Amino acid sequence: MTTFASGTTASNPEKDGLTRDALTVLQPGFTGTTAPDWLLRRLGEGLASVGLFGRNIASPEQLAALTAQLRAERDDVLVAIDEEGGDVTRLEVRTGSSFPGNHALGAVDDVELTREVAFELGRRLASCGVNLNWAPSADVNSNAANPVIGVRSFGADTALVARHTAAYVTGLQAAGVAACTKHFPGHGDTAVDSHHALPRIDADAEVLADRELAPFRAAMAAGTRAVMSAHILVPALDPDHPATLSRPVLTDLLRGELGYTGLIVTDGMEMQAIAATYGIERGSVLAVAAGADAICVGGGLADDETVRRLRDALVAAVRSGELPEERLAEAARRVRELARWTASEPPVTDGDRRPDVGLVAARRALTVTGAQGAGPFTPLTEPPYVAAFTPVANIAVGDETPWGVAAELARLLPGTETGSYTGGDAGRAALEASAGRRVVAVVRDEHRHAWMAAALDHLLEVRPDTIVVEMGVPQAAPRGALHVATHGAARVCGRAAAEVIAGT
Question: Do β-strands 26-27 and 295-296 pair in parallel, antiparallel, or remain unpaired?
């Protein structure tokens, strides 16, 4: 086993200095459920972080073996993951999460419950060898039409988001896992997904200070070990560069005005907001020059060639004078400091363990509304037909994670059948497929999809006894014989809704 925490040896001055620092600031991904040879080689050369995604995880046992494989090469490696719980899960990418996401926790508004959920999630990560979580989202979802944040946010109220962000950071880090609060300076008031293009927020500086920045201040007060930048243009802060590439945002505001001293991580550099405008090499150089300490890449680009390209771009920028060598060295030092913190925080595997806390939270997050004047709801005793009106998932959520209530209803009411529908004919098609059965209509962000609202209108006109389960941000008025708002589409949210429908 070899530790490179100091970043120096005597064998190769080139790799021991500048090149090693360039590798240290990268957080790449890879494909497969075991570490490829190229990744292990790069860890030996100075790479200090590895990012994991759903494609890398088959089971907790396999994940623990993978992280042990990485630490056999470098024992202080930062193993990062994008595990928000709720809709965005990597640990349970093929089954759906055992934890509700931020919006459900915000709906309950019990900060101790949020802390418990974050602790239990962190405990599970730590037991698998993961020590850095790219979470929580501290974005204030002030724009209900936001296509990428939505239920990933604790809500639209700044004070609520701030107190739950702090509780989440506290819980996660109590389990020995570093929190990475995102997406600075706040991605909530956007109508564009930065995976596809560059969003813009035109709020003035006073609004930004009062609304967007408050949750980040709370996270810093709670001791968040990392902050992730957003690929968004905020003209009031910098009219020319997105936040990830902006010295006024990362250095003047985050470091200077807010006094933050921890690690600054970029959002994925292969996202189109950066890749399509600057390219990942140029973008990475600009990000480090602006004040970022770690370059996240690997969600879409996950190979040795990407690592080599970014390493060489950083080295070339230092040699040309574009990137000060001391700025790169400072960034690498912050990465190593976080690695030392994680090594000093032994994983918590027991403690105040509460494995059912996710289900407890999901049940408490439900908002159940009966049809006006219809009297108490009578739970179903016969298997229904579940019609899932399915929107296109954003990239952060992904389309490989199952969602809805059908699987949980089938467990409680054997014989339950289901179908997935989209487009203008969805309502009629669902009615036809139901073949006279009681219908449970499952929607997700109905207010953002005109076709979905129209399908639900048609379905309710013909079958007013339809039960509606809203699994996105509930904006539309409750409808149906029973309307259940889950505030998220995690598996555990589906289970809580199914329990209400079946009366268990």
Answer: parallel
Question: Quick one: how far is CA 385 from the chain centroid?
Answer: 31
Residue in the block written with tokens 């400091």: 337
Residues 392 and 170: their CA atoms lie apart, in Å, by 34
Span 253-274, pLDDT tens digits: 999 999 999 999 999 998 888 8
Q: Longest Cα pair distance anywhere in the chain, in angstroms?
A: 81
SS3 69: helix
Please confirm, yes or no, whether 267 is among the known catalytic residues. Answer: yes
CA–CA dist 216, 214 (Å, integer): 5
User: Is 458 among the catalytic positions?
Assistant: no
Q: For residue range 175-233, what is the model confidence (pLDDT) as tens digits? A: 999 999 999 999 887 765 566 567 888 889 999 999 999 999 999 999 999 999 999 99
**Lowest mean pLDDT, pick from 9-13, 31-35, 276-280:** 9-13
- Read off φ and ψ for residue 356, nearest 5 degrees: -90, 10
Beta pairing, strands 178-184 & 49-52: unpaired
pLDDT tens figures, 101-126: 999 999 999 999 999 999 999 999 99
Residues in a beta bridge with 440: 386, 467
C-alpha R_g of the chain: 23
Angstrom CA distances, 25 to 22, 77, 121, 318, 439, stand at: 6, 12, 26, 14, 52
- Among residues 195, 231, 449, 487, the one annotated as catalytic is 195
* Catalytic position from the list 189, 193, 267, 445: 267
What span, in angstroms and rounded, lies between the C-alpha atoms of 379 and 376? 9
| DSSP secondary structure of 78-142 | EEEE---BTTB-STTTTT--SS--HHHHHHHT-HHHHHHHHHHHHHHHHHTT--EE---B-----
- pLDDT at residue 400 in the model: 74
What pLDDT sits at residue 130?
97
